[in-house]
Every structure is written in C-alpha cells, then in structure tokens.
Design brief:
The protein is an alpha+beta fold. The protein is built from nine helices and twelve strands. It is globular.
Length: 307
C-alpha cells in the first residue's frame, strides 16, 4: 500500500525538506501546507507530533542537514542557503525536489522538458535506503560486453549522475574491489540482512577529484592545457569541464585553459565534443593522440568522398 511504502515515505521527506527550507515556518504553517500537499495521502489536516519528529530525525540523517527551532517556535534549516552546494548529496536532493515540485504542478508538465534518461531510476529508492541503513545489496548486473549477467554482493558507497545516467559506486564483495554500476544495466536488486561500514578513508568527492566523468584510473594527475576559440570560451567559463579548470591566458580570439586531472576517455569525449573550437596544447603525448585521431578521421572521410 502506498501509504506505508518506502517510496511514499521518501516523497514525504522531500516535501518536508522543501517546506522547512522556505522557513522559518511554524508547526501551524507546516500543517496548513500539509493539508494541500500532493503527498498527503492520509487526507489529514495535520502531521502527528511523533511523525513530525521522526521525519525531522530521518531527513537530518539522510540529507546531512540540521533542522533548528527558534525562540518563536519556528523551524528552519541551518545554513539553508548552503544546502544546494555542489556536492553529490545535494545534487540528488535538487533532482528529487524538482520531481516532487512537478507533482504539485501538473499543468506545467508539458512546459518543463528534461533530457531522456535510460532505465534504472526505479533502483534509486532501494539503493538510497541501503546507503542510509548500511545493509548489503545483491545486484544482478549485465554490462555491454558480457553475454550473461553477473551477480554482485555490494556495499553501496555513493551515487553519481553523469551524462544522463545514474551510477552506483560500491564495493563488490564478489570481486573484492570497488566497482561502478550503471543503474540502467542493473536487472535486479535484493536487500540482505548483512550490515557494512564504509571505510574511514573513503570520501566520494575525493574519490572523483582528479577525474572527469565516471571512469577512475590509477594514474597520477597531470596538467593539461587547451586553447579554446572565442565562440566556445563562454560555455567553458560557465560550465567547466572539471573543478580544476583555470583560465590562464585570455586574448580577443581565444583563451587557454588548464586542468589538473587524470585524463580518461570521459575527458577526451568532452574535448572532442568541442570540435575545432578546442586545440590540445600539452602534454605532448596527448597532442600526439589527438593528432592521430584527427588524421584517422580525415582518412575515413577521404575514403567516403575522395578529393
């Protein structure tokens, strides 16, 4: 039944966070908003006191925030302006909050368009719940190169969205290593009774610090410099390819950007997507790779339409 499902409770938590984030707000005002909330399947005119504090404790833990009560009995989120900062957990909160808002704005559904996302979003709920309660999951996974799916017993470390896909970063007890699982390639998830603890030395942001995208390599990061044509410069200024991006030279016709990272295929893809607006300047070995790619592409086109 929806009222008792984990999915329904999660929707209530999102509504709860959004309501208090607009605070300070009194209990009476919260109850007034609850009367008209789309998640109020109970059709009650108030939130029971025990339920209120249970939700408060859960969302504090789930979204790593603090809900305070001032001297006037009004509730607010401590440092509410910072809960949308660009970390993994708050990005997820942003996404879930938009989805919750759209449920209250049915008339706008055809006016707010999203990029299509492959299947797999239905696994967000059980994964997030497992991350919160720290229990192991059995997942069945089929990658693009295997004919048959494989089963992994995993400890969920974090979730990351990249290029319209959700990825679970987890320690696979089956493979005895950290693995990345695209949610659209998971075919089944089953909870277990096993409990796990995330290692003290694992930090999600640190884990991805020196790479672009989702592919983590063991190589050492290095400085990469690219020249960017003036038409592309504003796009990189407003949406950097990587947090380490720096604009180190600026002229009327181009800018030079530097990055400190481990170059992987995800980074190469971002550079190639800029086409002739981007030229790799250093290191030399990366210049050679892009020269070879360009020559290969030229030859392929020349075979189709010889000069």
């Amino acid at each position: 039944m929806r009222k008792t499902s984990t999915g329904y409770l999660f929707e209530c938590y999102i509504w709860f966070v959004n309501t208090i984030a607009r605070g300070p707000v009194s209990r009476e005002a919260i109850d007034n908003k609850w009367v008209h909330a789309s998640v109020n399947d109970y059709k009650t005119d108030s939130i029971p006191e025990s339920t209120f504090h249970r939700w408060r404790n859960t969302v504090e833990l789930l979204f790593d925030l603090k809900i305070k009560c001032n001297s006037r009995g009004e509730y607010y989120i401590e440092e509410a302006a910072d809960i949308r900062r660009t970390n993994l957990r708050s990005r997820m909160l942003n996404l879930l909050s938009v989805n919750s808002l759209l449920k209250d704005c049915h008339d706008l559904r055809k006016q707010i368009l999203f990029e299509p996302i492959p299947a797999g979003e239905e696994y967000l709920e059980p994964i997030i719940t497992a991350m919160r309660d720290k229990y192991v999951l059995n997942i069945t996974y089929k990658n693009f190169t295997s004919e048959e799916p494989a089963t992994h017993k995993v400890e969920s470390y974090c979730l990351k969205a990249y290029r319209q896909r959700w990825y679970l970063i987890a320690f696979s007890r089956t493979r005895n290593a950290i693995r990345h699982f695209a949610l659209d390639r998971i075919t089944c998830i089953e909870p277990t009774q096993d409990i796990y603890t995330i290692p003290d030395d694992f930090d999600a942001e640190e884990y991805f610090r020196n790479i672009c995208g989702i592919t983590v390599l063991k190589d050492q990061p290095e400085e990469i410099r690219i020249a960017v044509g003036k038409a592309q410069v504003p796009y990189l200024r407003t949406l950097p390819l990587h947090p380490s991006q720096k604009e180190i030279e600026t002229s009327p016709n181009r800018s030079v950007f530097s990055y400190f990272l481990v170059p992987n295929e995800d980074f190469y893809r971002e550079l190639r997507a800029c086409g002739r607006n981007v030229l790799v300047l250093s290191p030399e070995w990366l210049c050679q790779e892009f020269r070879a790619d360009t020559k290969l592409l030229y030859n392929m086109y020349n075979e189709i339409n010889p000069e």
